[in-house]
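Q: I'm a student working through a structural biology exercise. My instructor gave each of us a protein and asked us to get a predicted structure, then write a short paragraph describing it. Mine is Bifunctional ligase/repressor BirA. I'm not confident about reading structure output yet, so if you can add a plain explanation after the tokens, that would really help. Here is the sequence I was given:
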Amino acid sequence: FGKTLHWFDTVESTQNLARAAAEEGAEEGTLFIAEQQVSGRGRMGRGWVSPRGKGVWMSMVLRPSVPIHFAPQLTLLTAVALCRSLKRLTSLPIGIKWPNDLLIDGKKISGILLESAAEDERLRYVIAGIGISVNLEQLDYPAELLDKATSLRISSGTKWDREDVIADFLKEWEQLYFLYQEQGFGLIITLWEALSVSLGKSVRLVTPQGEMVGVPIGLDDSGAIRIKLADGTIKPVFSAEMGEPL
Ligand code: BTN
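A: Happy to help. First, here is the predicted structure for Bifunctional ligase/repressor BirA. I'll explain a few features afterward.
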């Protein structure tokens, strides 16, 4: 990964560049990194604060040869790789909030956005977008995000080298991706559950099919989170907004 690396100064979103390159046939592992994004994108149509030089704003082209419904597995794999790498590097108490936000003391330091294109029920390519708030300061965030977002710098009191962060993450990511392709998703489930801060606490979930309250108890083989409802039934949820513990 990163054999072909495109490092830009200012872009709208590295996701757009990676997607255009993937359409043109860019090979797996091609990376797009920017110093600054002026229209950084988050999940659920939200924006992503990406000020110049202060974070890792990166998109990678993946070409996994798996059916389309495996996309959630790749999201969870990416969260595990990033969490393991950042914990090792910084020793900060980082956990994963389902599906793929990394949190320190309940505040977000990193987000992952997977966008994919499919053909005949198989993934043609996946763009894995990774945003890591490395050296942002409080003044970099709009006031309404201050109680929800943090950075490695704010949480640790020191600045971090972005290239170290990128290099360590890519190493971890490659290892896990290799194991995943060799051995399947089981290992990722175990690692994700061990790093998760979302299990065992009752939460409200807003899904495309409506709201529910339940207790997340783990992942299933496809990458859905298993929610135990008040009547004891267990429901797999693929996509939702998960609230704070009730
Ligand atoms: C989220 O948690 O909502 C996902 C945030 C993903 C942000 C990254 S930064 C690099 C890539 N380019 C974007 O525009 N978004 C992703």
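A: Here are two points you could use in your paragraph. The first strand starts at residue 5 and ends at 11. The CA atoms of residues 118 and 124 lie 5 Å apart. It's a good idea to check both against the output above yourself.
Q: Great, thank you!
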